[in-house]
Write a structure and sequence with these properties.
Strand order of the largest sheet: 1-2
Distance between the termini: 39 Å
Order of helices and strands: HHHHEEHHHHHH
Strand content: under 5%
Shape: globular
């Protein structure tokens, strides 16, 4: 009888999302490493862009200015990379199946003078703007279009670092920021459709990385372009 392969689901489970989040927030990474909400926004921008960048281009930006995280083993390196790529592919799948079913990974915030939690999409939006800036030239047609600017408005207001005083006044209160956060899923669906005529269909899983053992002289899966032994392999405990 043939033994069935244990193929992981495309979508990360809650435990796997917690595992990825714990690593991103651990001492193995720098203070500039993207947190889960920022990472989700960043990857969503890459996927809704007119041209999708390859992992080798965007993976290093997850870690900020730091070279690479201090992975404690090759197994951990492969595991974290696999989780990131599965989440990336799951965003592609959701948007291809139904853009209106977009589910951004938002944080929540509690304030001393308020009895409830507020939806907080600021860091998600910041990650999305970082994704745009990574491919700013490809997005130029969008910024030259008045309709495009309106579609991006909630993401821009929450995630841009270059707001005017008038724009700053629109995000002063938790309620204002929550309302803009609630508008983001509809904006992402519209943004995805805006670029759809220019974007080739990407087969889900086409960016999935193999999880086989990494050779010391092979390219590092973090996307730096360097050999593993000269990159993440340096930080792996022998």
């Amino acid at each position: 009888m043939t033994k069935k392969q244990n193929i992981p689901s495309l979508y990360l489970s809650d435990d796997e999302m917690d595992e990825l989040g714990s690593f991103l927030m651990s001492e193995a990474t720098s203070d500039e490493t993207m947190m889960p909400d920022c990472l989700d926004g960043f990857m969503t921008a890459l996927i809704t862009a007119p041209v999708m960048a390859t992992p080798g281009v965007w993976l290093p930006h997850i870690w900020g200015q730091a070279d690479v995280p201090a992975f404690n083993s090759e197994v951990q390196l492969e595991r974290i990379t696999a989780l990131i790529m599965r989440h990336f592919n799951s965003i592609i799948s959701r948007l291809q199946e139904n853009p209106d079913a977009c589910e951004p990974v938002f944080d929540s915030a509690v304030y001393p003078d308020s009895p409830r939690e507020y939806i907080d999409g600021e860091m998600w939006a910041y990650g999305y703007m970082k994704g745009i800036n990574l491919q700013r030239q490809d997005w130029q047609k969008f910024f030259d279009d008045q309709e495009g600017a309106e579609l991006l408005r909630p993401v821009y207001l929450l995630g841009s670092e270059d707001l005017t005083p008038e724009e700053e006044a629109l995000i002063e209160t938790p309620g204002q920021r929550e309302e803009l956060s609630r508008q983001i899923p509809a904006s992402i669906a519209a943004l995805y459709r805006y670029w759809q005529p220019y974007r080739p269909l990407v087969p889900v899983g086409s960016f999935q990385r193999e999880q086989a053992k990494i050779g010391r002289n092979e390219k590092c899966p973090c996307g730096s372009g360097r050999k593993f032994k000269k990159c993440c392999g340096v930080s792996v405990e022998q």
